[in-house]
Design a protein that fits this description.
By secondary structure, the protein is mainly alpha-helical. The chain has one domain. The chain is 72% helix and 0% strand. The protein contains 4 helices and no strands. The termini are far apart.
């Protein structure tokens, strides 16, 4: 197995985890939108967050390949940290903290979808040995992942403020 194939596997894994996170965020968004089963929505959000962390970790693993092989001038600046996004390119638009839980989860899902697409593009560029383009796509994926995590965190804060003390609770068996 070539090292480039190793990077491709991590891009595919990252994309799959981003897609799963998007599905769970959409499910949470629907629960908040319809005003029902907030405990289940919180559980869906927690699972989405787990997939987000796995996606970020896989993306960081893929980026390590490019950093180790110095295929791009920015690759030396990428120092992935487990479970935290590394340096990324900015995404246009301000991060809105005044959204409802449903809208934060919907925004997180949209960013996860974008991140998955960018990992798919990075994988394709890597397979064609277009490493500079692969690095840029990986950085865009990371930026979308950061935005997705931000929106998930904002939804969690809002949930804790509004439902965490006196609202519905979930039992974990």
């Amino acid at each position: 197995m070539s090292a480039n194939h190793w990077a491709a596997e991590h891009h595919v894994s990252a994309a799959n985890h981003h897609e799963a996170a998007a599905r769970y965020h959409r499910e949470a968004s629907r629960h908040y939108e319809f005003g029902e089963d907030y405990a289940h929505a919180a559980h869906q959000a927690l699972v989405a967050h787990g997939h987000a962390l796995l996606a970020i970790d896989s993306g960081n693993q893929a980026s390590r390949y490019y950093a180790e092989h110095d295929h791009h001038p920015l690759s030396a600046k990428i120092t992935p940290t487990p479970h935290l996004p590394a340096k990324s390119l900015p995404i246009p638009g301000a991060m809105n903290t005044n959204l409802s839980d449903a809208n934060h989860h919907a925004a997180a899902a949209d960013h996860h979808d974008q991140a998955a697409r960018h990992h798919g593009h990075a994988d394709g560029h890597g397979e064609r040995k277009e490493y500079a383009l692969a690095v840029e796509e990986a950085q865009m994926a990371r930026a979308h992942a950061q935005q997705a995590v931000f929106h998930g965190d904002e939804a969690a804060k809002h949930h804790a403020e509004h439902y965490g003390k006196s609202g519905p609770t979930a039992e974990i068996l």
